[in-house]
Amino acid sequence: MAIPTVNPPASETKDDLHPPEKKNAPILQSLHYKLVITLYRVFAITVLYLVLAGIISYAFVMGFYAVNSSWAAPIILSSADEKSLDFREKLVTSQQTIEDLKVDTKKLDSGLAEMKKHQAALLALEPELQQAIVREQTHNRTTGPELAALDQQKQADNLKTQKVLAQLRDVESNITKDLASGLITQGDAATQLAALNQAGGAYTDSKIAQVLLTDSVLDKTTTGTNSLDVLVKQAELRSEVAQLDVAINVAEKQYKEESQQIDRLRQAIQTAKESPYYLNASGEKTLYFAFVPYDNQASAVAGSPIYDCYLNMVACRKVGTLKQIFAVEETAIHPIFKTQIRGFLVQMNLDHAESAKSKTLFLGRKPVLF
Amino acid sequence: MAPILLWLILVLCLSLSIAKYLMGTILKLSFPSTKAQKDYTYQPTVSVLMPCYNEGKTVYETIESISKSNYPSDKYEVIAQDDCSVDDSYKWMLKAQHDFTNIRVRVGRNEVNCGKARSVCNALQHSTAEIIISIDSDCIFHADAIRELTACFAEPHIGSVGGRVGVRNPNDSVITAIQTVIYYSAFELYKIPENWTRSICCISGCLFAIRRDLLLEIEPAIRARNWFGIPVNQGEDRFLTHQTLLRGYGTYINNDALCWTTVPNTLPVLFKQQLRWRRSIVRDFFFTLRTLPQHVWKLHPNTVFTLVLTPLGAAVGSLVVVTMLTSDPLAWASPVPLIAALGVGAVLTWVIKKYSAREAVAHPLAFGAYIGWSLVSSLFLTPLALCTMDSADWGTRTKLQEVPLGNTNR
Fold first, then answer.
1. Between B110, B330, B407, which is nearest A8 by CB?
2. Which CATH number is A152's domain given?
3. Architecture label for domain B1-397
4. Which tens digits make up the pLDDT trace of B213-262?
5. Which of A252, A284, A300 finishes a domain?
6. What is the 3-state secondary structure (H, E, C) of B259-313?
């Protein structure tokens, strides 16, 4: 590499020990160097002043935003905004849930009414059944002994009749003998024998009546299967009433819970309707919002003017007013310090839509007087 | 895309630095070949060249410390060259010449103020010694320093040898404490991998030994150094080291050759010194880039990487810091860098206390302030150096009444 030579001193020491150096730098090269150096110095001074200006500006901006308490960061929520869409989806889902719950509660309500009606009918049947049982028992207590006495009498009668029928066997042989001997005609003999058969049939009927009577006495004086059937029916009736009672309780509880859930969802939707994301999702117009950190909360007053400034701090102009303050907490990245900060959103009425794209806006007053 | 590229370059540069520190530790502990074969029987004649500018009484103390060297007194001399100091430095030189008669002290004075590099060249004219040692006039030298430096020239391949620079005032302020840690780690760790390949990229001008023949070969280039006609008087140590390497010689730092310097104890002085060093690095970087093929073929890859990536890292560091301050202004305030700096500082402080008690830093947490300095340094030094390449003063030694820089025809 060729190292450019300079004009060295004739002698740099008192002793003058080193040989004199050549001083024959071409004039053109010298001019070239001068030109380069001049340009370099102009460039360097410009750069250094720019760097200095940059450092001062940077330091000022940092200091300004460290102490300023009126800035807000505009946020443009598009209709396709993720949070808004999510919000909308949740809202639709909630409303759908409410509708489903309403149908459910309606069903529950009508079911409940039906169950209560049925329960009332069953409950009304119960005393009647009880009365019938009592009535029957009372009747049995009266007729049972009477029938038992009649049964005994009947048995005695039948015994007597049996003895008479035994005597009638001799009469029958006498009739046969009389017919054979021709004492009576065949017609008379047939009439007499038919009378004897009638007496036997009457005895058999009387025996059947006695058996039936004994059976009736048994029914009236002991607990029979019929009585048990009635008791079973009564138990079933009571069980059905109890089951209905449980079902009604459950249905009433469910109805209450679903009603409460509907209330809660309605409340949530009401709260959601106060959110900027709902407004953004449901509104057709472009709405303007801004994030306000808690440190600047005092400057966020509904109706206060909003200023937009050049270089984020000077030459400010009024661009709108603060419309609404949302109470829900939000987090955002500080537009200058890039740290995460907590705060809330406000809705703005902006006369200049472009201001929504500024890095920061100022609430209430101009930040540096102009 | 551009910020990612910047980060990638910075990560590469930082990785190189970290790798060098780690390698330094490993080599220092495990590889004897890292150290040069020293031959103390080799005792060439030595000229200690001491350019001086506005150092006052310190020059007397410096010559005094050299006069106490255990190198044979008939084999070395001191040549003090005053660069038109506006204070009483020259008188102190003459007094030293008068007082320290055990050695030969020669005192010269430039006709015009012409900077350190040319003062060295002027002093060289008085010398006939085989080994030239250039020193800073504000340093105090260990009695073994000359012996240790010359012993390394027993390796014929070595062209230049440097010594280790310790800090005289480690506990003046937090700033000096930080510098103490940095100086120590640089010499004892960072430069060790370069030592291993005998390719130190910058031997400190505080204690710089070079073969006379080699210096005479390089001298015209030193005198001819200029930046579009403006003489370059700074960074002669880096230039000399670089030229030594390019001429096929090895460079080495002998950490047993000790000298002690007083480091800046205020921020403005430190900034000025660092700016001077950064200019020299930038200048060297441009020179490296212009002659890159020559470097690639002639020098060890370790040297080429260091010569390219160190200044590149500094330049990219500035851009990264600007990007970082604009995109995430408080990122630097996170506890991670501070904890890292405190951790590294505490370990190095303990090591210094154990192995170099004279430089022991009183407060182990002082190095935490390095975060602040590194931010300032990364942000300002490189751009400022790039915009003040036409500067040619003595840096920290400049005084108000000084005569203008010369080296022009008269």
1. B407
2. 1.10.287
3. Alpha-Beta Complex (3.90)
4. 999 999 999 988 888 888 888 888 999 999 999 999 999 999 999 999 99
5. A252
6. EEECCCCCHHHHHHHHHHHHHHHHHHHHHHHHCHHHHHHHCCHHHHHHHHHHHHH
